Amino acid sequence: MELIKLSDMTKLHQAVAAGDYNSVKRILKKGLCDPNHKDMDWNDRTPLHWAAIKGHLEVLQLLIDHGARPCLVTDVGWTPAHFAAESGHLHVLKTLHALHAAIDAPDFFGDTPKRIAQIYGQKACVAFLEKAEPQCRDHRQAARQKGLQLDQRDEDWDAKKREMELSLPSWNPNPEKKKSKKHRGSTKLSNTKERRA
């Protein structure tokens, strides 16, 4: 049974990337696959990431209707909004914003979809995101005040991000060693003074 699920999931990612609405619909109706499956061979991209990359709005909506979560991120923290911004798919960004997806979420390096759109010269996306980001923050704040839970966190990402942070080289890897060296140096100096006396 597990092999069937994996096979169908591979087909789902491929069908979404190709924009094959009918195949995506057929695969999802089988109910043998999770529309939130992260493909490790493609940097943890979900089918929703592929729909955003390719700008397949109808497929994106079909995935959402079958439980795809816009908050899931790749191995470097990219949401579907990052990919839509990179590719200039304004219609995808508008749809994600209408669904209250966190279109202002930073990736591992701190880049938001707006920053990605700026880097890739997607001026229409930048203009939209400049207006949409404050609305996104306001919606989150209003939901918090009402005690509503929003689906804007990828639970797996927090642990993965921490692991990545710990694997980065540190500018000052052992601050305690430096302190202890200074301490030992002053001990030697005081020993020398004692010998002179």
From TrEMBL:
Pfam families for the chain: Ank (PF00023), Ank_4 (PF13637)
Residue windows of the ANK repeats: 43-75, 76-108
UniProt KW keywords: ANK repeat, Repeat
InterPro entries: Ank_Repeat/CDKN_Inhibitor (IPR050776), Ankyrin_rpt (IPR002110), Ankyrin_rpt-contain_sf (IPR036770)
Region (Disordered): 140-197
Top-level division of the source organism's lineage: Eukaryota
Gene3D superfamilies recorded: Ankyrin repeat-containing domain (1.25.40.20)
PANTHER family: ANK_REP_REGION DOMAIN-CONTAINING PROTEIN, ANKYRIN REPEAT DOMAIN-CONTAINING PROTEIN 66
Descriptive protein name: Ankyrin repeat domain 66
Source organism of this protein record: Sus scrofa
Protein encoded by which gene: ANKRD66
